[in-house]
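Give me the fold.
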Amino acid sequence: MMRSRPITKRKVVVSASVLLIFMVSIFLIVYNISPETKKHILSFPERITTEYLSKRLSTKPTRISTSPTRISTNPSKISANPKKMSANPKKMSANPKKLSERELLLFVGIHSAPSRLDRRNAIRETWMKECQSNPNAICRFFTDGQDPNGKVLQGEKRIKLENESRVYGDLFLTEVPGGVNFAVKYLWMLQWAKERYDFQYFLRLDDDYFICFRKLMLELEFFRPKKKFQWGWLHCELPAATWLDEAFYLVSKDIVESYLSRRDTLLCHVWESQAIGYWTKNISDLTTFADNRRLLHKQTGFSSEQEVLKRTEICHSVLAIHKSYPEKMRLFWSIYEKEDKPVAYQEVKISYGCRYPLAMDYRTWGKKSIWFSEPKLCKDNPVWDRNGEYKGRQGH
């Protein structure tokens, strides 16, 4: 006769893997805030607290080196064969489709002349730190890979650029004619970024612009339209030529797609902002934010070091400052790092503020003006040779 075993209490053992999955699930639920939760947080849509902002915008230290001494100019250390350093979107990656799966809020393309290492380093040491530590943004420099006649750069100039690209990983050489052929380069930058990232906004920037990057990201995430939107500093002097300046020019993803889908019929111009003035004519219901009060194109109140040193803040008052050459760029950053961060941000409403509607007619300037040039089809890679490399305003 078999004896029945006494009934004993069994201990329930929760495996470490099950516990880990549970904890990760809880984290994902908390981090990926639902639309209803966001609506609750933004019950007053004009303001958002820094407590919530700190959870959305990373403040981890930058991973980018800012030491220019690491750049080698020894030809023996790097091939001078330009074919080995291609900026062609199809050659840069063996799997561009996989790269394009990365979603971003913002891609920043900074146009910089080949010789402007000083400006690029000033940006790397200042506001670009916030871009590099933010997983929702990418900032990249784009410089000439060809001379103004379409010939590939050779020799020491190319070697230095290739070394800089390898050291920092944020510099790319365009494969279109260099110099003042800005509109063609802009289309190339858009295509390059579009093939690699799924961004909601694209910001084209000059290399002498100081950006309140954290503030910009906040406004894009919560306050700005996601479709048919362009943002910049508006030229509002001429009824036949009213346009956004290219030095800071931000557009939504659908505008980028519109430009690229029409590139076989688009007209290009020496100055890309004039070309864009033509491109936007065919886009209906376009929202234009002429943010002239906060995008300081002419540096009112920031023009001298004495004026700047009297300030206790930078980014409370403005969003970006043009003509910020290296020394001033670092000065602005030093003040920004010390300024009191606001408890809450106030939304700045979109405005236009110009009596003239958007318009563009290249004939406005007359043939003697440096701004005059007859548009040409972009697909033909038009060339305007105006004395080689364009370094921008010289500054200091």
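The CA atoms of residues 97 and 196 lie 7 Å apart.
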